[in-house]
Amino acid sequence: MEDPFRDPVPAGTRLIETFRFNAQTQTVDRKDLHRARLERTARAFGFPLDNEDIRAKLQAMECDAELRCRLTLAADGTVEIKAAPLPMPEQREWVLAVSDQRLRSDDSWLRYKTTQRSLYDRARENMPHGVDEQLFLNERDEVCEGTITNLFVTLEDGSMVTPPVSSGLLPGVLRQSLLDAGEVREQVIDLPTLRAARAIHVGNSLRGLIPARLKD
């Protein structure tokens, strides 16, 4: 059971799930994990959630193209889904930089995807030239996450690790699917570990895993 969210919740706050509608399968990628995360978040915030309404809305979706979908849940239980075409991503390595902005590992807002994302939005708006994603550190110099992605690091022994929630981050759906499949495990990651990595990826449920490198 998710612990109740204790911080004051500003009026108008909505819970968010961003997902990909797969044109080939005519369904939402990782649908069950998205619904499970939304249910946990709604319980924590005390927002009413009509699972049948959401299930019906998702089942009614049809399109012959890939879609980027954004589902929001309001405090009164109102659900809204907005969809837009998802362009085919350019197959290239993303360049990563480390943000000057620090996260606080005990910030409970980091664990939930909501419309209270001004820190991430500002970081993306001020992305340095030639950089695709910024990574945040916490007060202990542990790497947390990116503005829109989780981090995945392949160590010298070939195993893939991702920062634990205790470092301060949103537990993403792609991240959870990889943990469930045993393809990745949690481990605290610092900058020396990141720099010594055999490979680096960032990713989310919408885009999947993206190869990346740390900017010199």
Outline the structure in words:
It is a single chain. The chain is of the alpha+beta class. The chain has two domains: about 15-85, D-amino Acid Aminotransferase, Chain A, domain 1; about 95-215, D-amino Acid Aminotransferase, subunit A, domain 2 (D-amino Acid Aminotransferase, Chain A, domain 2), CATH 3.20.10. About 20% of the residues lie in helices and about 30% in strands. The chain has five helices and twelve strands. The strands form two sheets. An eight-stranded mixed sheet has the order 7-6-5-12-11-8-9-10. It has a four-stranded antiparallel sheet with strand order 2-1-3-4. Strand 1 and strand 2 form a beta hairpin. The model has no long low-confidence stretch (mean pLDDT about 95).
Question: Can you give keywords for this protein?
Answer:
216 residues, alpha+beta, D-amino Acid Aminotransferase, Chain A, domain 2
